[in-house]
Amino acid sequence: MTRDPRYDILFEPVQIGPVVARNRFYQVPHCCGMGHVHPRTAAVMRGVKAEGGWAVVSTEECDIHHSSDVSPYMEQRLWDDDDIPQHQLMIDAVHAHGSLAAVELAHSGGEAPNHYSRTVPIAPSAIPVSSYEPVQARAMTKRDIRETREIYRKAALRSKRAGYDIIYVYAAHMLTLPCQFLSKRCNHRTDEYGGSLENRVRLLKEIIEDTKDAVGDTCGIAVRFMLDELMGSDGIECEEEGIEIVSLLAELPDIWDVNISDWDNDSATSRFKPEGHQEQFIKAVKSVTSKPVVGVGRFTSPDTMVSQIRRGILDMIGAARPSIADPFLPKKIEQGRIEDIRECIGCNICVTGDYTITPIRCTQNPTMGEEWRRGWHPEIIPSASEEGPILIIGGGPAGLECAVSLGKRGCQVTLADSNEELGGRVNLESALPGLTQWGRVRDYRMQQLHNLANVELFPASTMTASDIAEFGADHIVIATGAKWRKDGVGRQHAFALPGTEQSHVHTPDDIMSGLELSGDVVVYDDDHYYMGGLIAELLNSQGANVTIVTPATDVSNFTHKTLEQETIQGRLIDLGVAIRTATALKSIGKDSIEMTCIYSDQLSEIACDHVITVTARTPKDQLFHKFTAKMEGSEDVNVPQACCIGDCYAPGTIAAAVYSGHQYARNFGEPADDREVPFLRELTKI
Ligand code: ADP
Ligand code: SF4
Does one domain contain both 394 and 251? Predict the structure, then answer.
């Protein structure tokens, strides 16, 4: 296949100071939960992006000094020369595919609590660190400022020695020291580094100039800058100061990488923001600088990318999440394989890696983070030593991914599902408010199945244990999902709650299947991810008077890790949903519920017509147990192997279901791994 000439513009080279990017695809810095602790994992992951066609591949934040220690978060480090060799692993992996390697040098100033180094944090003024911790930064003296400039300079020189092509000065996401100087909230100085905008910009300007002076002969200098903090006059506002700051520094860097802050605004989920949502802020940048501009917007459509360039918004298409979901996105456009793009769904499961301090994972791309330790490549899956036949029952995310990956390995696969439409839980959940793009989990896999003649699909086919036995496959994969519990058992309650057996108690499955409710409705959320908040929002939109009750101290608590919690709770408050936090359900009566405070055992009661229990899910594994029981009595010597995958094995996220399906397919026909740990680990050499 050849590329559509409409997309030729995306493959033009771009000059970035002394270096040239071979096309306009730019993987901007993004966290990956690997950092200085998992350098091989990171190097191979970034190398795969270069192989997939990203002309620039960047690190995550790279802290440049022990006074910028963001432990326990796993970021990169260049504190001294001892850090250089691990950077070279990544640089070599990126260079091997003809791409440029970029490093995002960062000093987090008063945002770094320095738990590991125990160095007292520094900031423009004496301010507390923003996390709720008993740590305050001290105000920097002039000497500190001089020393900090020197720290940046040394880090730039180290980066050059390591082999980086592009060196960043990071002034975005409100985390970094230069941003703290820009911000009136953090900078209360009265000397030449505080007060007027020109004074507040001074340190950033000096750092850019120092970096350019130190390494600008061979390295491109990038500035990552936040144009707006979306907090009104308390923060940087694009029209007030944001664009003026770019004007003041316009020609100093070799490329501008622009976005909005904080990270939750920059990486907003698809539930709250559409593709390209930052355009209104970044569109003015090109009018004040002649340097190339890169920006992000969860771009997955090549038409949108071309439009960004033709309309003069961006010169390079920046991506973090689209490059995570599909490291081969540029190659697929180049090869005219648009329909093969595995589009990011905007769920931010990738972000949870950073917050759980573990290597990144992705809902759409099960190989993300597994490139080195399991040797999984996102586009190459070896042929299987065995053909099957394999029967998969259930076409949700686990079953679909399993079928696609086994199909690509050349196996004979049959997939049966009770429903007319394949997709399982994705069909139900993508119909919830704001989750339309989650349907891409199904759409990508259905598209891939079209091209796999060795995979047969049987929708509208409910399978029984006898059907399976009669089918005669050698391998049976049960991917029949899970259902929400009604009895209230979850994290808070180990035993069924009194009253849950009543007919006015329902589960998310009932609501997602179309049950509409009115009157006073209580949503009891002991699941803590998106479902409780979404059911509350949906019922509210249908006119019910909704109260959400949760034992957690805030709503949808896990969504802190997907950068959504504040937006979710804010939206529920604005919609008029009543919120009772730190409260556990005690019992459900005919027209009321009794609750208990999780701290004090104080009781309270509210009237309600309906209760939705959002607590935990039960695997739908009866088919597996019936089939294995049936086979136990069989005299057939060739009893097929059966196993469960996805939610019917253990209920979890859609990402976990996809991973489970992929893992089955990868392992199929492979000899049992005799290592005690079935993947490579990065061990500290003693
Ligand atoms: P997962 O997240 O693990 O992929 P889902 O709940 O999304 O699980 O999907 C399970 C799928 O299995 C649903 O589409 C459902 O219709 C299908 N299914 C459940 N039981 C049977 C059965 N006995 N025969 C065929 N399909 C089934
Ligand atoms: Fe996109 Fe979700 Fe994958 Fe992140 S985890 S890259 S948001 S699909």
Answer: no
161 touches 153 (CB < 8 A): no
pLDDT over 90 (residue 608): yes
Would you call the peptide bond into 113 cis, given omega within 30 degrees of 0 as the criterion?
no
Tell which residue, 190, 196, 173, has the closest CA to residue 563: 173
CA distance 131 to 19: 39
Q: Which atom of ligand 2 is nearest to the CA of 364?
A: 8
Most distant CA atoms of the chain, gap in Å: 89
What per-residue string of b and e applies to 307-336 under the rule 16 or more CB within 10 Å gives b?
A: ebbeeebbbbbbbbbbbbbbbbbbbbbbee
Q: How far apart are CA 341 and CA 329, in angstroms?
A: 6
Determine the Cα–Cα distance for residues 49 and 309; give it in Å rounded to an integer. 22
The C-alpha angle 530, 532, 533, rounded to 5 degrees, equals 70
* Per-residue pLDDT reduced to its tens digit, 297-306: 999 999 999 9
**Residue from 349, 426, 429 to probe ligand 2 pocket by mutation (most atoms less than 8 Å from CB):** 349
**Residue 31 annotated to the active site:** yes
Q: Is the CB of residue 585 less than 8 Å from the CB of residue 488? A: yes
Q: Which domain holds residue 292?
A: 5-356
**564, 506, 554: which is closest to 530 by C-alpha?**
564
Query: Do β-strands 122-123 and 255-259 pair in parallel, antiparallel, or remain unpaired?
Result: unpaired
Closest to 57 (Cα-Cα) out of 8, 23, 81: 23
Closest CA to 364 of 39, 33, 662, 27: 662
How confident is the model over 451-475, as a mean pLDDT?
Answer: 96
Convert the pLDDT of each residue in 67-92 to its tens digit: 999 999 999 999 999 999 999 999 99
Q: What is the pLDDT of residues 177-186, one digit of tens each?
A: 999 999 999 9
128 and 217 fall within a common domain: yes
Mean pLDDT of 46-53: 98
In the predicted model, what is the mean pLDDT of residues 671-677?
86
Q: Are residues 644 and 574 in the same domain?
A: no
User: What is the domain count for the chain?
Assistant: 3
- Residue 340 and residue 233 in one domain: yes
3-state secondary structure of 596: strand
Q: Give the number of other CB atoms < 10 A from CB of residue 602.
A: 10
Pocket of ligand 1 (CB under 6 A): 393-399, 416-419, 424-425, 462-463, 479-481, 620, 623, 646-648, 657
